Amino acid sequence: MAEESDLEKTESASPRKIEKAREAGDIPRSKELATFSILAAATAGFWIVGNSMIASLKKTMQESLSFKEIPGFNIEQIMINYSLIVKDLMITFSPFIGILIMTALITPLLIGGWSFTMSNLAPNFGKLNPMSGLAKIISINSLVELLKAIAKVIFICLAAWYLIQSHLQDVMSLMSQPIEAGGANQIELILLSFTVLVGTLAIISMIDVPYQLWTYNKKLKMTKQEVKDESKESEGNPEIKAKIRQQQREMARRRMMTKVPTADVVVTNPTHFSIALSYPENANHAPIVVAKGVDEVAMVIREIAKVHGVTTIEAPPLARALYKMTDVDEEIPPSLYNAVAQVLAYVHQLRVFKQTGEFQPSLPDLLELPPGLDPYEFLAPDATLTEAA
């Protein structure tokens, strides 16, 4: 059952797979949205600049069909006249054509965006396979396209029937109207027909666009195994990365252990924590944590300190606070200055005693920490400093 679930496409497409699909020219597209946008732009263009285009066309046709005697039927003059006519037509239709071009450029941004790729121009002889072509004909996508075509025909026929029924008298009256008035009314009816057609296509587009997005996302879905393989490919094998991190921790731990012999004191919790502190004479900074560890690492720090004669002091609250609030090679926080100063003062006195033998220092009876610094203060009472054996 686990193998079957790994082969089922249940995972959403990763950004990398979507990017690869776009690079191959595979992006969501809606033909219905494109058709609706162009027809809507054409209809809007006719409503906006239609009158000026008709007036310009009328003037151009009058000038073209009127006879003007050209001396000797001068061919050059005839070509000049025609070039002026073409220029006027281009100026007349340029706003309308500009609207259509802008619509054609903006429409792809509504679904899928722009995509420029040369991969689709490469020859693909697999498309010549009749079996694959037959599979496309019998596919669910072909059935959906057929249903969409039928729906478009039904919607357009219903819209046309409604338009004819509601404007039948206007159409019949065109024959009895003067030419200019009839022509104007006819143009209004044509524009109204285009508007109704655009409204019909808008309904179809609102259904088709979500369907195309859903189909595209479903097609790009991935199996759990594909997600794992892609993760290994893009980020590296997790097992190898874990091994590398383990080696890095080991190297950092070995470097840390080499600094324990240089420490002035090791503050410990007898069973868990060890923190090695260094504070050279005449230092202009706070004591620095040169090593810290918990459990097994803490035991190793204590053993190295014992071998190299570094003083070890048991102070559970201070050890826990230092472990929680500091990192290796960092200065201790100001809130722990007082407690650490007591420890370092005792270590200094002990060092003088070992050299001179004059006065043996005694450990402070009580270690004071500001409230809230010991992460386990609700479990442990105030700890007395005692020198480790």
Secondary structure blueprint with pairings:
Elements: H1 2-7, E1 9-11, H2 15-23, H3 31-65, H4 75-110, H5 130-137, H6 140-166, H7 168-173, H8 179-219, E2 222-223, H9 224-235, H10 238-257, E3 265-268, E4 273-278, E5 288-294, H11 296-307, E6 311-314, H12 316-325, E7 330-331, H13 337-356, E8 386-387
Helix pairs in contact: 3-4, 3-8, 6-8
Description:
It is a single chain. With 389 residues, the protein is α+β, with helices and mostly antiparallel strands. It has helices at 2-7, 15-23, 31-65, 75-110, 130-137, 140-166, 168-173, 179-219, 224-235, 238-257, 296-307, 316-325, 337-356, and strands spanning 9-11, 222-223, 265-268, 273-278, 288-294, 311-314, 330-331, 386-387. It is elongated and about 135 Å long. The two termini are 60 Å apart.
Quick overview:
The protein has 389 residues and is α+β, with helices and mostly antiparallel strands. The protein has helices at residues 2-7, 15-23, 31-65, 75-110, 130-137, 140-166, 168-173, 179-219, 224-235, 238-257, 296-307, 316-325, 337-356, and strands spanning 9-11, 222-223, 265-268, 273-278, 288-294, 311-314, 330-331, 386-387.
